[in-house]
């Protein structure tokens, strides 16, 4: 039995430390080959339960410090003004890691300029956290919401609360909720789920509070959360995230040039260039002609029109036959990564125009955020603040209806505020307003009728366009699938919600039975975990945090609504 458990845990340890010879950390055990029968015999719930521990990282764990995305020795960075934690002081001897302090106290995104931190590294967080898996060995912004849902479902309330507290720490010491806790993410955030995380933990804590002291402690935590959420929300209403004069928000990264974390996939940007050269009619103007080997005198022009080769190794290789990507493309590329949907063709080829759009997903999330804050303000005895949040939500909903709702299609569509026109790209984020409560009953019904555009035997596809990118057809992802399912459920459409939950649950279970693993995405047309992606992240990461959490939530939904779904299906027939 001990051997079986060891095999299972080893299979879920996803980060190999081999190759970092300068550390004393032993290499993580290798993954078992797909089809290993001993894993297939383990119940999937057992796999997930054990994966929470295998995917948990902390500052006392050497595996936490390794970054598969960059080729450099592990470095842990502390905030400039934070006293040295005892558990960190032992890391150099224990893990062979360098411990350094950030050069300044960080209060906003973009405060640290490229070059001020010589070596990329991990940012200190005080509490243990769950990572997604595979090459993603840090705590991510929107992944964590779905991970927390799974943790709470499995009774891991302390771990879930600690992760939310880590986000408070990021806001206080790193300028905001980061894409993830690495130094190269100082320029952007991720989709704003913080209020949803806070209320999920609050609900779980409130359910088990048994004494007046418990409730006082919980109210104090909510009061603290409210202050940090207010700061986080203000980032999304600041000038950098303003979508023109629409009253809506956009994704935006304050950095310049190609992202540093793509150094382990040096073909991505050249792949983009080659595609654009092969499809000139579909190039929105992302290419600029510059010499492949610029002279020192030409380098300033290359930096002004494209990217700076003197400070970016990735930039130095991002050209093909005298063609480079424009500076504006890189702004869109970075904004796309803040959105979490990297990569699709939703905002132009390779989403290179993301920063020109007010997205349905982002504004739905912010609408819910504002309603969440109104609820928290009421719980905290702040009626005037609650009313203010409700007015803000109402204004955003009016803008959503004006710019993002397409009554002819019965779909919510992204809006290009630069060209002043609605997108024609049909995308699964059209279901977000149902989950957020921004859709009227008539709008929800119209969107529900379009479910057939996205639904396949294995679940919900991201789009109707097979671009070859991982966030388009034929791929289905747990987070968007769950928001769609939960949104349908909230609207009373239990027949569609439960059917979609069964389809995607079956896809996860069938592939787990064959491979003994749970992965980040699935081909929902074939129902397979075997994927082929043209450019970008071409693999399928194993773990996998948000898929684990969503699977547990789908199981919970299916257990609670079968009778309701049956009645509605019978009525429709």
What does this structure look like?
By secondary structure, this protein is mainly alpha-helical. It has three domains: 2-211, no CATH class; 260-356, no CATH class; 454-573, no CATH class. 45% of the residues lie in helices and 7% in strands. It contains 21 helices and 17 strands. It has helices at 2-12, 37-40, 44-54, 86-89, 91-95, 143-153, 157-174, 194-208, 212-236, 268-278, 299-305, 313-316, 327-339, 360-379, 383-403, 432-436, 441-449, 478-490, 494-515, 545-560, 562-572; strands spanning 56-57, 75-78, 98-101, 122-123, 129-130, 287-289, 319-320, 323-325, 357-358, 405-406, 411-412, 415-416, 421-422, 455-456, 459-460, 475-477, 521-523. The strands form seven sheets. Strands 3-2-4 form a three-stranded parallel sheet, with no helix packed on it. It is globular and about 70 Å long. The protein starts with a helix and ends with a helix. The model is unreliable at 1-40 and 564-573 (pLDDT under 50).
Provide the fold topology.
Layout: H1 2-12, H2 37-40, H3 44-54, E1 56-57, E2 75-78, H4 86-89, H5 91-95, E3 98-101, E4 122-123, E5 129-130, H6 143-153, H7 157-174, H8 194-208, H9 212-236, H10 268-278, E6 287-289, H11 299-305, H12 313-316, E7 319-320, E8 323-325, H13 327-339, E9 357-358, H14 360-379, H15 383-403, E10 405-406, E11 411-412, E12 415-416, E13 421-422, H16 432-436, H17 441-449, E14 455-456, E15 459-460, E16 475-477, H18 478-490, H19 494-515, E17 521-523, H20 545-560, H21 562-572
Parallel strand pairs: 2-3, 2-4
Antiparallel strand pairs: 1-5, 6-8, 7-8, 9-12, 10-11, 12-13, 14-15, 16-17
